[in-house]
Amino acid sequence: MGETVQVEIERKYDVDGQASLPRLNGVGGVAQVRYRPPMALEAIYFDTAARDLSANNVTLRRRTGGTDAGWHVKIGKGERRLELHSSLGKDDAADVPASPVTVSVPARILDLVQVHVRGKQLVPIARLNTLRSVVDLLDGQGRQLAEVSDDQVAAMAVGFRTESRVQHWREWEVEVVDAGLIAASAGGTDAFLDAIGQVLQPAGARPSAVGSKVEKVVGKAVDPLDPRAPLVRTGTPEDHDGGAPAVHAVLAATVRTQVKVLKGWDPLVRRDVEDSVHQYRVACRTLRSLLQTYAPLLEADATGAVIRDLKKLGKLLSVARDAEVVRDQVREKVAALPGGPQGAIAGTIPGKTVRRLHEAKAQAYEAAHARQVKRMRTGWYFEVLDRLDAFALTLPLNPGLPEGDTAAAAMVPLATNQVDAVLALAAAVGGEQDQARRLDHMHEVRKEAKRLRYAVKAVQDAAGLDFGDELVARMKTAKKLQEALGDHRDSVMFQEHVLATSKVAARKDEDTFGYGVLFAAEFALQARTEAAAERLVAKLAAH
Question: What angle, 0 to 180 degrees and rounded to 10, lies between the N-to-C axes of helices 351-375 and 469-507?
Answer without folding.
Answer: 120
